[in-house]
Amino acid sequence: MNAFYGAGNAANARNAAAPAGKKKNEARSPRLAAVPPVRIAALYGHNPKQNQLLASLPQEDFERLLPHLEFISMPFDMTVCEADTQMNHVYFLTSSVASLLYETRDGASAEIAVIGNEGIVGVTLFMGGGASPNRAVVKCAGYGFRLKASVFMEEFRRGGALQQSLLRYTSALIAQMSHTAVCNRHHNVMQQLCRWLLLTLDRLPSSEMAVSQGLIATMLGVRRESVTEAAGKLQDEGMIQYRRGHITVLDRAGLEHRACECYAGVKKEYDRLQCSHVAAAKGAN
User: Fold this and answer.
1) Which end of the chain is less packed: N or C, by CB atoms within 10 Å?
2) CB count, 10 Å around CB of 78?
3) Coiled coil located at which positions (predicted)?
4) Burial class (CB in 10 A: 0-12, 13-18, 19+), 43
5) Helix (H) or strand (E) holding 137
6) CA distance 191 to 256
């Protein structure tokens, strides 16, 4: 069970099988409409406040944004934004998990950060960078809410609770990127795999994740054979159970013991962020 995913989101995950009958292209580009308050209860059990940033807002601020939030399905491998493109929306994730990827000109890529319901995709909008330097892709299917960039920036410039929460979140995100860079350069594949599994697990409602070894290799920027070997050792030691396209974590404490200090450093920052979210939410109420 993860560190960020609330009890309410666990129920959502059971409802996260999107309405049947959608074609693949429809899932990638759903027709979206603004979500008025009266419709929240009907959104497959989802509520914008299942995103911790939105949940931390004072009610007045939240209600100002609510009519502009668009509920979206976020299927596996959906591209949230491409590198070097201006984002027209920011995405508040609820039950989905996204990866920020850096891609080279020859097509190689590596994950530099993972984002769940503790944050958003789109920090470059308020950091002054303009176009996103990274590609963002959904690696665990689920749902979220998106907000037009113009509405988002108008709220950010008010200098209120949303701005403060976003700056704290960005600090934690930068810390994660820093630890990931060090880990990918100085630690072995086993340590990197344990870190990756734990960071993903922290953002999921259960101990099972739908992920292939090929995808993990792409995210870590290593050979698939190296991931297969490391995953095999973890399975032999009883820490994970792997079947085609699915990994179940059986021994989280064992993974934490095998991981390098990078995971502990990232978790410390996000624990601090979560405490600030909780404090803000209590103060708002």
Assistant:
1) C
2) 19
3) none
4) middle
5) strand 135-140
6) 9
pLDDT digits (tens, 9 = 90+) for 114-157: 999 999 999 999 988 678 889 999 999 999 999 999 999 999 99
Please report which residue ranges of the chain form alpha helices under DSSP H: 7-14, 24-28, 52-55, 59-65, 124-127, 149-156, 161-186, 189-201, 213-220, 224-236, 252-258, 261-284
Higher-confidence residue of 33 and 162: namely 162
Full-model pTM: 0.82
Q: Which domains does the chain have, with CATH numbers?
A: 7-183 (2.60.120.10), 186-262 (1.10.10.10)
> How far is Cα 79 from Cα 21, in angstroms, rounded to an integer?
21
pLDDT in tens, 193-252: 999 999 999 999 889 999 999 999 999 999 999 999 999 999 999 999 998 889 999 999
**Strand 120-121 and strand 109-115: pairing?**
unpaired
Query: What is the amino acid identity at position 51?
Result: N
Question: Do 78 and 138 contact (CB within 8 A), yes or no?
Answer: yes
**Within 13 A of 109's CA, how many CA atoms are on the CB side?**
20
- Mean of per-residue pLDDT scores for the chain: 85
Could you give the CA distance from residue 153 to residue 268 in angstroms, rounded to a whole number? 29
Q: Bigger pLDDT: 52 or 44?
A: 52
